[in-house]
Write a structure and sequence with these properties.
With 624 residues, this protein is an alpha+beta fold. The protein contains 20 helices and 22 strands. 45% of the residues are buried. The structure holds ligand BES and zinc ion (ZN).
């Protein structure tokens, strides 16, 4: 990208050309993870009309796509699709008269799916596609009543990030493309539909729930869930949706969300999405949280009864700036989303709960980073910006863009001072609001707005070391946490037989301290020591899913599977959050006998996992 182009784009922005979508990007971004011809014809608005059919595990209906032509003579609209049954395509000039038009599904690519090419009549401004999803749609999970808290009603939820929106809507599935959307969704009686949009409180006369997202968002933020859902308010702009059985505990756990929104606004600028609600999903939700605009999706495993894991909410909320407002243009620029968000989360935790807790989370982040750097398959995966495109974003997912990205911003803050850095960050969000950006665009902005203000403070070589080199720069700035240092000392004294287990003080530990306790465990621990630990703290069958995951992985890794059974099997059959189950399967897969056991467990339990989690476990069991 030429600097002249960037300048011109910057000038267009200051002149207030805000109605044009992605002015910085027009015609410039090549997204290796999309078939779409969005540099010729670009979607601007989607209108969904869907029936939720639990009997066949299918969404059935149609999507209308409005678009603008960046090339006046463009005669086709290329969309992404994956395992969709496409039945018909129509085009229209005015949205009233529709005529059938040709469509072709291309060859299937295992990662990208199929291009869906729709012929555009010369004056057409919109097309409409009738389709149905398949039961195996990668971005959806259809749950039986038994997999929910209420045990009776079925449940459906989507997970579109990174490239799974195309498995439930044919669309231009690239984060460089933003659209507004509206939807009508028909559900069985008694079940409620929610989406990442403004919502109605009741279905209309025809039984449809209606939705409207007036701000342009990338496709990976389009989200839906259907189930036996109730709502409880937690503040003027905040509230919680959950199954009735979970609602009360969830509303208590997340009672401070309104305060966090206000804090975000103070630090990062106005919250531009209206409401901020949470949706608590069944435990098979494959992530901790997903920042769907206006409606963050969260795992129930962070409802621990002590509000200790609410920084996950802070993280998803912070995405309302880093990600939802300013989006990575391609999945190669993922660190612009997640690294920024982790940095903002550190700042929020510190402001809300004090420096000690903030530093604790920073130190845990660095430990995760070191582990991820050690495990990375290649040097390309260790950089913030990969030198060549990855195949499958799910496969290369790791803590590196999160924690290396955050540490890079911590470094810049330390060099320029908090005040200057905060003003810079705010400027980045404000000047790129509702746009998508590449790493190169960020680096050009950084150079112009921060580095050049104090020449020599940070050199291009130092920036390059953070962004394009695999090793961590030697001058990175690390936090220290007394609370975690104490845990290390207590663990090591006990393991060395110097002090009794009761002297560790673990009764007072926070979940973070427990995590750190497990992460620092040596490989040489004895069965007797593990037994003592389990007896003292009732770890097997622990109601805290985070602690349970660490404990089972440790026991398995130390050859003590029997000690944690049958509770571990029950756990693996209930929880589907990848971060919690993968370490257990990975620990099993390190020995031949363990791998046989893991395969048997997965054969029995895998059908209860989300398709994305199933694929992740399959990859572990295959041995990569
Ligand atoms: N946007 C991510 C989740 C995601 C990333 C889904 C990539 C699909 C592809 C979300 O904001 C996230 O990072 N969640 C974390 C929690 C966070 C506190 C680090 C998670 O789910 O563990
Ligand atoms: Zn995130």
């Amino acid at each position: 990208m030429s600097i002249a182009f960037l300048r011109a784009a910057g000038a267009a922005l200051t002149l207030g050309v805000s109605t044009m979508l992605n002015p910085v990007l027009a015609g410039e971004v090549v997204d290796p993870h999309s078939h779409a011809n969005s540099n010729e014809v670009r979607s601007t608005h989607l209108a969904l009309d869907l029936d939720v059919d639990f009997a066949t595990s299918r969404l059935k209906g149609r999507v209308e796509i409005r678009f603008e032509r960046l090339k006046a003579d463009a005669d086709r609209l290329v969309l992404d699709s994956r395992a969709l049954d496409v039945q018909a395509a129509e085009a229209s000039v005015d949205g009233k008269v529709w005529t059938a038009t040709r469509f072709v599904l291309g060859d299937n690519d295992a990662v990208l799916g199929q291009a869906l090419t729709v012929t555009l009549p010369p004056q057409a401004t919109r097309v409409r596609i009738r389709y149905a999803t398949r039961p195996e749609a990668f971005g959806l999970q259809w749950l039986k009543g038994a997999q929910t808290a209420g045990k009776k009603q079925p449940f459906l939820f989507s997970q579109s990030e990174a490239i799974h929106a195309r498995s439930w809507i044919p669309l231009q599935d690239s984060p460089a493309v933003r659209t507004t959307y509206e939807a009508r969704v028909k559900t069985p009686k008694g079940l409620r539909a929610v989406m990442s949009a403004e919502m109605s409180d009741a279905p209309d006369a025809a039984g449809y729930w209606t939705f409207k997202m007036p701000q342009p968002i990338p496709s990976y933020l389009i989200a839906i869930a259907v189930g036996d859902l109730a709502f409880q308010s937690t503040g003027p702009r905040t509230g919680v949706y959950a199954e009735p059985a979970t609602l009360k505990a969830a509303a208590w756990e997340f009672a401070d969300t309104e305060t966090t929104v206000a804090l975000c606004e103070k630090l990062f600028g106005p919250y531009r999405w209206g409401r901020y609600d949470l949706l608590v999903l069944p435990p098979s939700f494959p992530y901790g949280g997903m920042e769907n605009p206006r409606l963050t999706f969260v795992t129930p495993t962070i409802i621990t009864g002590d509000r200790q894991l609410v920084s996950l909410i802070a993280h998803e909320l912070a995405h309302s700036w880093s990600g939802n407002l300013v989006t990575n243009a391609t999945w190669e620029d993922f660190w612009l989303n997640e690294g920024f968000t982790e940095y903002l989360t550190f700042r929020l935790t510190e402001a809300q709960f004090g420096k000690a807790r903030g530093d604790m989370e920073r130190v845990i982040g660095v430990a995760e980073l070191r582990e991820a750097l050690a495990q990375a398959a290649s040097d390309e995966d260790r950089k913030l910006k990969r030198g060549f495109p990855s195949r499958d974003p799910d496969e290369v997912f790791s803590s590196i863009p999160y924690q290396r990205g955050a540490l890079f911003l911590v470094y810049l803050e330390s060099k320029f001072g908090r005040e200057a850095f905060d003003a810079f960050l705010r400027g980045w969000f404000d000047s790129h609001a509702f746009q998508s950006a590449t790493s190169e665009q960020f680096l050009a902005y950084l150079d112009e707005r921060l580095l050049k203000t104090r020449p020599g403070v940070v050199t291009p070589a130092q920036i390059d070391a953070w962004v394009s080199q695999p090793a961590l720069p030697a001058d990175a700035v690390y936090a220290v946490s007394d609370g975690l240092t104490e845990v290390d000392a207590a663990r090591d004294r006990w393991l060395a037989g110097q002090t009794p287990i009761t002297a560790m003080g673990a009764g007072q530990w926070t979940v973070h301290q427990w995590e750190h306790f497990f992460e620092g465990f040596p490989k040489t621990v004895t069965a007797a020591q593990l037994k003592e630990l389990d007896a003292a703290f009732k770890l097997t069958g622990s109601g805290n899913a985070i602690i349970a995951s660490h404990w089972y992985a440790l026991a398995v890794g130390s050859g003590q599977v029997a000690m944690v059974q049958p509770a571990m099997t029950e756990y693996l059959g209930r929880v589907g959050r990848m971060k919690l189950i993968s370490p257990i399967y990975r620990a099993l897969a390190t020995t031949d006998a363990g791998r046989v056991q893991a395969r048997a467990l997965f054969a029995k339990l895998g059908s209860g996992y989300h398709p994305i989690a199933q694929q992740a476990v399959e990859r572990i069991l295959k041995g990569n």
